[in-house]
Amino acid sequence: MARTDSYVTVLVSLVVPLIACAVAWSHEAKAPYQEAVRAYSQHRDAEALEALKQALSIYPNYAEAHFLGGLIHTRQGRATEAIAAFQKAVSIYPHFAEARYHLATLLLQQGKTKAAMAELLKAVESFPNYSEAQMLLAGIYEQQKEGDKALAMYRRVVDLRPHQATAWLRIGVLQEQAQHWIEAAQAYRQVLALEPQRVEALVGLGYVLGRRGAVDEAIAADEQALALQPSLVEVRQHLAYLYQQAGRLSDAEAAYRQVVEQQPGQADAWFNLGLLAERRRDPAGARQAYEAAVRARPDFWEAHFALGVLAKAENQIDAAVRAFQAALKHRPNHPESWFNLGVLAVQQQRYHEAVQAFEAAIRARPEFAQAYYNLAMCYEFYLHDTPKALGHYRQYVALGGNDERVRQLLQATKQE
């Protein structure tokens, strides 16, 4: 199943930092700063900025005042001013981890990933238990496809904050991507222990349990996810596939039909509906489903091949030929399509074309015993080339063919 991993979003805290600058501030600067804090907490940003201006005129190196100014500018959407304020704060107090964190979030918004990472690494160095910075840093590693670094950072987060459900979720996703099914399932279960209705965790759990062969548990996870969010088409398609594996064919068909009702262009769902219709011995229904599959995805060679098999079974030779040729257009080395074209060519008494088709099937699959047999039959009965027929019969027998007439023919040839 196709699945989309979103970039980890970390909400910017709007609380005033508790980190104290190691400086002695004057009573005159402290009073307007505290007024700015009160105004900021009441969303009176203009008054807060005015109070900060007064505080900084008294004490220009007031790091917390610059930081608060950065928060205000961020809230008002003035990124340039906010960045300048945060940079000033950390130039005064290099260990101001929270200022570096907020600076990094703004740099990321501007696409300056390298600079943002540098700030986050310094923040974590200054404050090793800063889980928010670690989450953001892990998200960057994940975005850059550095899964091992991301996984290590997310694990640091859950070591610090075992109840951080999003970190557990990302661990699950990364373990899933690495095909570590057991570890992924464990991480998703951690998420669900914290947030039982976390849909992403239910979806991930259903997928990894399915890969592990725990079909009933996977079905339960998918059903729960769909009960919470019925619009998840990919999950419903996965559930239908699980129903097929469990032998619940009517449930599978109902689920696939829901998929194509939600998204008529879901070629895989149409194809599986065709397979289910064939199992019900409904060739007309199967044909309709396969035709819908190739309309949705013209290069769906498996559906073209299935249409060819249906047409051949109903002796619709021209339709079967077209379908097998369409399959080969998108899968040139598909041995069964070549083989069936050979069989149809024999029926049409086009023996040289049949030979070419059987030879192409053998090139695609050198161990294709039945293709050697049919090729030999062409040479023996229609092209009257006994030496070539015998050569291909020998290949057929060498590959395990057990036609008694052929064995006797080869035995007789040896005795001559």
Description:
By secondary structure, the chain is an all-alpha fold. It has a domain at 28-128: Tetratricopeptide repeat domain (Serine Threonine Protein Phosphatase 5, Tetratricopeptide repeat), CATH 1.25.40. The chain is 75% helix and 0% strand. It has 23 helices and no strands. It has helices at 27-41, 45-58, 63-75, 79-92, 97-109, 113-126, 131-143, 147-160, 165-177, 181-194, 199-212, 215-228, 233-245, 249-262, 267-279, 283-296, 301-313, 317-330, 335-347, 351-364, 369-382, 386-398, 404-415. α1 (27-41) runs antiparallel to α2, α4 (79-92) runs antiparallel to α5 and α13 (233-245) packs antiparallel against α14. The radius of gyration is 34 Å and the shape is elongated. It starts with 26 loop residues before the first helix and ends with a helix.
CATH architecture of the domain at 28-128: Alpha Horseshoe
Q: What proportion of the residues form beta strands (DSSP E)?
A: under 5%
Say what oligomer this is: single chain
If helices are DSSP runs of H or I spanning 4 or more residues, what is the number of helices? Answer: 23
Which residues sit in consecutive blocks of at least 5 with pLDDT less than 50?
1-25
What is the H-and-E element order? HHHHHHHHHHHHHHHHHHHHHHH
**What is the fold-level CATH name, i.e. the topology of the domain at 28-128?**
Serine Threonine Protein Phosphatase 5, Tetratricopeptide repeat
By DSSP, the count of extended strands is 0
- What is the class of the domain at 28-128 in the CATH system? Mainly Alpha
Question: Gap between N and C termini, in Å?
Answer: 60 Å
Give the overall form. Answer: elongated
CATH superfamily of the domain at 28-128: Tetratricopeptide repeat domain
Q: What is the helix content?
A: over 70%
User: Gyration radius, to the nearest Å?
Assistant: 34 Å
